[in-house]
């Protein structure tokens, strides 16, 4: 069957990991990347969005022109905020009126979901909403007396970070690519709500549910992994953990790293990739971080990644929100030399070679465990 | 052997004795005896380590050292923390561009930077082309990917002489650069407002700064029309009334830039801004006549200083709950806001000074307030001299000159030795403009400002601590604690 031609809107670095691994978008061909003019990407290679090398696809700001080339308009998450009613909804309407199918992976409010659904119905075009599948939302309440955890017998790799914007999704897709190419059967839970589109599971929505007891979430997560293990019989399970692991300070709380803690309680990991924002760290920093993860979350860090995103402490403090600076990924390559002698290796996932080495390091770690398995 | 002299600054207020610990950036309230003991050691150049360890002061000092205070550590090399990431920051974090739409002005103000009294360009008929303006706006957008909100400012001369160009620039920006929060701003002398102009500024929610120095007898001393030389107060005042009548809500957002010529009568200014109901909801930005690049020295009168300080005193009385806010002058509220920002909001506490860093003061040239002249030349901001080769940091068609920007950013390098030993290192307010003699950056020129910076900072420390002694809270109160014992 011929691939469907897709227009991506609004495009920015939030979508770049998927673009760089677009082989996972089975049945789709990305033909246009449309970004609002104010985002500064118009006419530039889409790789400029994450400053990690060109992709060969240029970004346009002309939605109407790009619309002619596609079968489907895909409304995606973006790192930058965009007023939904002012910019996105009118584009959805235009697309539907031009007979284009609509797919939305960004999270919608109920009323917007209803409006888009209705509009697509009226226009006679297809509509898919791919944000957190329904089956992840419904779990029976478990009473405290019946709380128990299954043993997970498959090797597990965690991907986690010090905070948001640490290239975690790129690491997850890069790992997936490597494991699959080496012939492993991979089960995976990703940090985003539309990973089914890429052939694996989204991070379960119940983990964000404010009405569920935290202990239930831990148990549900464990049971979900067990179900996936039973159903899919994988060689490895890769789990991406959204958010960070701890507050940065009293004002920037990083949601207290609660998800990382709950996942770590739900199941043990055999290896973990920990990603940091860029900064000039000394070796003691990584040693301290390894100890922190070991004693707070109970697992060992297998390797580190330094993302090409820097946390802007000065402006974040002044404006009381998280502000970042994107650096050219080649700059990170230069800095990696500083850590070449570290016991736990440090990689740059935005560099293809370094990303390959990262995956190989994890595979070899898991193989070592496999060689000394206690039965 | 290295001396163990703590890197501290000692000061006292009528209510307390204090140690400012430069390494940790904390202020410690201490006992008079400890203060005197530390003064003695400092004055006799006795190492802090040279003690028997038995007397009560030495025990207290050891206790403080145990908490990481009183370190003798100093910066080893002056280099700005943003130096290594300069190119990266300027590629994606430019927050604003100010377009000099014209070099012409319909006024000839005595203290104006372009009046001939400064080492700067003079008024000229040069105006910016739309093509250059567009390039400037394009440059801003393509260099601000990591910034949520950017600002396009219009400056002159008098920018409203080029209202048609401003309109085209705003429409071009909005038509082409959706999806980003873009604000517009303008500094104007307020003499050229028309209904059409006010409609446009209001529709686009311009942040307007109007220069107004006080009542007629003060304003007209310096701010005069180019043709005829008459004072401009009557015209500005009439325009303000029309403005407020036409757009009462929008008018509340207008800011006034008040240049305080300290030869004038402060009471007269004060009464004008605090009694005229036109300023009830407005923000006043006060500043002294600029001394950077000035060919002459401006004198202050004792009368002005005494009255100004008295109003500051009343402001502080209000902050400690002893005086109603209605009695506080709008002309001095900035004093408190600056103190709060510097001591509370922006103060970072550290274990020690890093080996390599830079004194406070310089911004990242080009990233914070990029200024583009009519010809497309870039400057760090609108306050530097356009005649200065040092300050011309690039061109819209060629991009930035990073070598020049690095020199401006690292201006502390030219006074490295004295800066490293200066207790006001973390609160310095000097940037390259204070060292710019048009031909280069002068250490001698920069150093001339140092005593004034330290004196101002010492006063700020004392005011801050006095307010705390009287129970005022600066919300985020970290860093001020009473040492027990």
UniProtKB/TrEMBL annotation, chain A:
<dbReference type="InterPro" id="IPR023823">
    <property type="entry name" value="CHP04066_peptide_maturation"/>
</dbReference>
<protein>
    <submittedName>
        <fullName>Peptide maturation system protein</fullName>
    </submittedName>
</protein>
<dbReference type="InterPro" id="IPR027417">
    <property type="entry name" value="P-loop_NTPase"/>
</dbReference>
Automatic annotation (TrEMBL), chain B:
<dbReference type="InterPro" id="IPR007197">
    <property type="entry name" value="rSAM"/>
</dbReference>
<dbReference type="GO" id="GO:0016491">
    <property type="term" value="F:oxidoreductase activity"/>
</dbReference>
<dbReference type="InterPro" id="IPR023885">
    <property type="entry name" value="4Fe4S-binding_SPASM_dom"/>
</dbReference>
<keyword id="KW-0949">S-adenosyl-L-methionine</keyword>
<feature type="domain" description="Radical SAM core">
    <location>
        <begin position="89"/>
        <end position="326"/>
    </location>
</feature>
<dbReference type="InterPro" id="IPR023867">
    <property type="entry name" value="Sulphatase_maturase_rSAM"/>
</dbReference>
<keyword id="KW-0408">Iron</keyword>
<dbReference type="Pfam" id="PF04055">
    <property type="entry name" value="Radical_SAM"/>
</dbReference>
<protein>
    <submittedName>
        <fullName>Radical SAM protein</fullName>
    </submittedName>
</protein>
<keyword id="KW-0411">Iron-sulfur</keyword>
<dbReference type="InterPro" id="IPR024001">
    <property type="entry name" value="Cys-rich_pep_rSAM_mat_CcpM"/>
</dbReference>
<keyword id="KW-0479">Metal-binding</keyword>
<dbReference type="InterPro" id="IPR013785">
    <property type="entry name" value="Aldolase_TIM"/>
</dbReference>
<keyword id="KW-0004">4Fe-4S</keyword>
<dbReference type="InterPro" id="IPR000385">
    <property type="entry name" value="MoaA_NifB_PqqE_Fe-S-bd_CS"/>
</dbReference>
<dbReference type="InterPro" id="IPR058240">
    <property type="entry name" value="rSAM_sf"/>
</dbReference>
<dbReference type="GO" id="GO:0046872">
    <property type="term" value="F:metal ion binding"/>
</dbReference>
<dbReference type="GO" id="GO:0051539">
    <property type="term" value="F:4 iron, 4 sulfur cluster binding"/>
</dbReference>
């Amino acid at each position: 069957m011929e691939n469907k031609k897709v227009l991506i809107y609004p495009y920015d670095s939030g979508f770049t990991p998927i673009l760089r691994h677009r082989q996972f978008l089975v049945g789709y061909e990305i033909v246009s990347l449309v970004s609002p003019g104010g985002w500064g990407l118009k006419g530039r290679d889409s790789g400029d969005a994450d400053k990690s090398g060109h992709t060969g696809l240029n970004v346009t700001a002309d939605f109407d022109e790009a619309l002619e080339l596609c079968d489907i308009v895909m409304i995606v998450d973006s790192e930058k905020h965009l007023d939904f009613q002012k910019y996105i909804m009118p584009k959805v309407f235009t697309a539907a009126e031009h007979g284009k199918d609509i797919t939305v992976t960004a999270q919608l409010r109920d009323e917007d979901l209803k409006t888009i659904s209705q509009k697509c119905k009226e226009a006679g075009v297809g509509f898919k909403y791919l944000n957190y599948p329904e089956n992840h939302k419904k779990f029976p309440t478990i009473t405290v007396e019946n709380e128990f955890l299954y043993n997970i017998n498959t090797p597990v790799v965690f991907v986690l970070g010090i905070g948001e914007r640490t290239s975690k999704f790129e690491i997850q897709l890069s790992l997936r690519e490597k494991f699959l190419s080496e012939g492993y059967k991979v089960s995976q839970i990703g940090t985003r709500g539309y990973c089914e589109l890429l052939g694996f599971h989204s991070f379960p929505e119940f983990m964000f549910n404010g009405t569920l007891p935290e202990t239930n979430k831990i148990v549900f997560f464990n049971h979900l992994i067990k179900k996936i293990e039973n159903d899919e019989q994988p060689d490895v399970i890769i789990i991406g953990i959204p958010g960070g692991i701890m507050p940065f300070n009293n004002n920037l709380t990083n949601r207290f790293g609660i998800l990382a803690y709950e996942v770590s309680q739900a199941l043990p990991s055999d290896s973990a990739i920990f990603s940091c924002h860029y900064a000039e760290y000394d070796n003691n920093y990584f040693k301290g971080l390894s100890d922190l993860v070991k004693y707070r979350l109970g697992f060992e860090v297998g390797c580190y990644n330094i993302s090409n995103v820097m946390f802007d402490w000065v402006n974040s403090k002044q404006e009381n929100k998280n502000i970042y600076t994107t650096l050219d990924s080649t700059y990170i390559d230069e800095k990696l030399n500083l850590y070449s002698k570290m016991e736990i290796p440090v990689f740059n996932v935005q560099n293809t070679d370094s990303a390959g080495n990262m995956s190989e390091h994890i595979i070899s770690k898991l193989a070592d465990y496999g060689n000394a398995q206690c039965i | 052997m290295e001396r163990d002299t703590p890197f501290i600054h000692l000061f006292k207020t009528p209510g307390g004795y204090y140690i400012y610990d430069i390494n940790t950036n904390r202020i410690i309230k201490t006992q008079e005896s400890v203060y005197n003991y530390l003064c003695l050691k400092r004055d006799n150049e006795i190492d802090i380590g040279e003690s028997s360890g038995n007397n009560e002061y030495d025990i207290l000092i050891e206790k403080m050292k145990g908490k990481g205070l009183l370190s003798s550590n100093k910066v080893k090399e002056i280099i700005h923390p943003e130096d290594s990431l300069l190119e990266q920051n300027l590629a994606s974090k430019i927050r604003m561009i100010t377009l000099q739409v014209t070099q012409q002005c319909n006024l000839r103000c005595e203290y104006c930077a372009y009046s001939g009294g400064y080492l700067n360009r003079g008024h000229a008929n040069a105006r910016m082309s739309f093509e250059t303006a567009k390039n400037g706006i394009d440059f801003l957008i393509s260099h601000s990917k990591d910034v949520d909100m950017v600002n396009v400012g219009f400056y002159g001369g008098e920018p409203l002489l080029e209202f048609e160009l401003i309109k085209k620039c705003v429409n071009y920006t909005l038509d082409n650069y959706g999806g980003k929060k873009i604000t517009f701003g303008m500094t104007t002398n307020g003499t050229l407002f028309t209904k059409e102009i006010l409609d446009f500024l209001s529709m686009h929610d311009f942040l307007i700064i109007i220069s107004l120095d006080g009542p007629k007898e003060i304003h007209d001393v310096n701010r005069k029309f180019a043709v005829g030389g008459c004072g401009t107060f009557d015209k500005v005042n009439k325009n303000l009334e029309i403005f407020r009548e036409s757009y009462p809500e929008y008018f509340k957002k207008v800011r006034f830039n008040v240049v305080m010529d300290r030869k004038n009568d402060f009471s007269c200014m004060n009464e004008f801004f605090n009694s005229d109901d036109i300023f009830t909801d407005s923000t006043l930005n006060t500043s002294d006549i600029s001394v950077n690049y000035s060919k002459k020295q401006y004198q202050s009168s004792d009368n002005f200083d005494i009255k100004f300080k008295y109003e500051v005193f009343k402001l502080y009385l209000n902050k400690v709950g002893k005086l109603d806010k209605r009695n506080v002058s709008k002309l001095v509220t900035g004093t408190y806001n600056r103190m709060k920002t510097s001591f509370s909001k922006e103060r970072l506490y550290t274990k020690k000074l890093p080996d390599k860093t830079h004194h406070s003061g310089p911004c990242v040239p080009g990233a914070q307030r990029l200024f583009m002249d009519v010809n497309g030349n870039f400057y760090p901001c609108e306050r530097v001299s356009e005649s200065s080769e040092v300050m011309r940091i690039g061109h819209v068609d060629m991009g930035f000159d990073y070598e020049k920007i690095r020199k401006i950013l690292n201006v502390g390098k030219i006074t490295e030795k004295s800066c490293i030993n200066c207790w006001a290192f973390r609160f310095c307010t000097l940037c390259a403009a204070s060292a710019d003699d048009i031909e280069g950056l002068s250490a001698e020129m920069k150093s001339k400002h140092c005593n004034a910076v330290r004196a101002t900072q010492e006063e700020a420390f004392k005011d801050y601590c006095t307010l705390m002694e009287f129970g005022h809270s600066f919300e985020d109160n970290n860093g001020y604690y009473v040492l027990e014992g």
